[in-house]
Amino acid sequence: MLVKPNTQLSLKRRDPDETFGWDKEAAKSELLVMHERIDVMQRRLAAERQHSLLVVLQAMDACGKDGTIRSVFGALNPAGVKVVSFKAPVGHELEHDYLWRTHAVTPARGEITVWNRSHYESVLVERVKGLATVERCDRRYRHIREFERLLVDEGTRIVKINLNVSFEEQRVRLQDRIDDPTERWKFRLGDLDDRKLWPDYRKAYELALSQTSTESAPWFVVPGNKKWVRNLAVAKIVLGELEAIAPKLPPDDPALAGLQVV
Ligand code: ATP
Ligand code: MG
Questions:
Q1: CATH number of the domain that 211 lies in?
Q2: Helix/strand/coil (H/E/C) assignment for every residue in 1-15
Q3: Nearest one of 224, 246, 241, 244 to 233, comparing CA atoms
Q4: Is 258 domain-assigned?
Q5: I want to staple 247 with a disulfide (CB 3.0 to 4.6 A). Which of 44, 53, 114, 191 is the partner?
Q6: To test ligand 1's pocket by mutation, which of 57, 61, 114, 127 has the most ligand atoms within 8 angstroms of CB?
Q7: Tens digit of pLDDT per residue, the chain (262 long)?
Q8: Does residue 26 sit within a domain?
Q9: In which domain, by residue range, is 93 found?
Q10: Taking CB atoms and a 6 Å cutoff, what residues make up the pocket around ligand 1?
């Protein structure tokens, strides 16, 4: 699933239906174990207050970002997890550089923050729709690598995940949104315009992920057609990142040894 740094990603070679030989029922049980382990690590991360984890989630419309967040992070203590959803920049945001609004919502020490879309929209939608020139987007890959390097150097671990859903599966999910009155509010007519630009988005994703997958802030392409595979895959990646941080409970205060509360 990793996009190896300094290689060219080809999404054609990444199967959105991949199951890694996992069994669906076993995967559901394993996900529950993952939840428990992530919960333990999150408590330690919060207690230690030295590091933070930033999870960047990128995918096309209706391709599972919200569902993944609910599945992987929904059972954690909400005090330690933030979810930030990035929409098109408005008002004051447009008066600043494209990274300005993202830096303000990076995780504090001890926190996990999930970005539902991110600064990558500035080299994805903005590139595809011509909102920023190609030259400008090309420069942005470097800004992004350096911005992420800054965060990593200062104690944030970063992992970036692209949910890879097929063109046909997106059709089904968009249609479901239209047909289900409780989901319809999520559909925008503009989603169909983006869908028409699918090949351009694929190219923009390939470029962006190839240019910005680094040792310290890697990209993973997770197969997204089967939700149970996607959820377990993302949970495993997140747990792996937390284990790499290896947060520890703070040492005991010697003054507490044998202390009795009366
Ligand atoms: P879903 O995937 O479930 O449809 P969503 O993330 O698309 O959810 P919406 O409120 O439908 O949520 O749309 C957010 C929109 O904001 C997307 O169309 C995205 O392309 C757009 N957006 C985010 N950042 C930027 C940006 N920097 N420039 C232009 N558009 C942006
Ligand atoms: Mg949308």
A1: 3.40.50.300
A2: CEECCCCCCCHHHCC
A3: 224
A4: no
A5: 44
A6: 61
A7: 999 999 999 999 999 999 999 999 999 999 999 999 999 999 999 999 999 999 999 999 999 999 999 999 998 999 999 999 999 999 999 999 999 999 999 999 999 999 999 999 999 999 999 999 999 999 999 999 999 999 999 999 999 999 999 999 999 999 999 999 999 999 999 999 999 999 999 999 999 999 999 999 999 999 999 999 999 999 999 999 999 999 999 999 999 999 999 9
A8: yes
A9: 2-247
A10: 61-62, 65-66, 86-89, 117, 121-122, 125-126, 186, 188
Give the C-alpha distances (Å, rounded to integers) separating 96 from 102, 110, 146, 227.
11, 28, 18, 37
Q: Which atom of ligand 1 is nearest to the CA of 188?
A: 11
The Å distance, Cα 186 to ligand 2 centre, comes to: 6
Is 261 domain-assigned? no
CA of 259 to the centre of ligand 1 (A): 54
Ligand 1: residue whose CA is nearest its atom 9: 87
Residue position matching structure tokens 């919060």: 46
Q: What are the C-alpha distances in Å from 243 to residues 39, 110, 240, 246? A: 12, 14, 5, 5
* CA 21 to ligand 2 centroid distance, Å: 31
- Which residue from 62, 54, 191, 197 is spatially nearest to 120, judged by alpha carbons? 54
Residue 10 lies in a domain: yes
Using CA positions, which residue lies closest to atom 10 of ligand 1? 87
Mutate-to-test residue for ligand 1 from 84, 85, 117, 129, highest number of ligand atoms within 8 A of CB: 117
User: For the chain, how many structural domains are there in total?
Assistant: 1
Whose CA is closest to atom 20 on ligand 1? 125
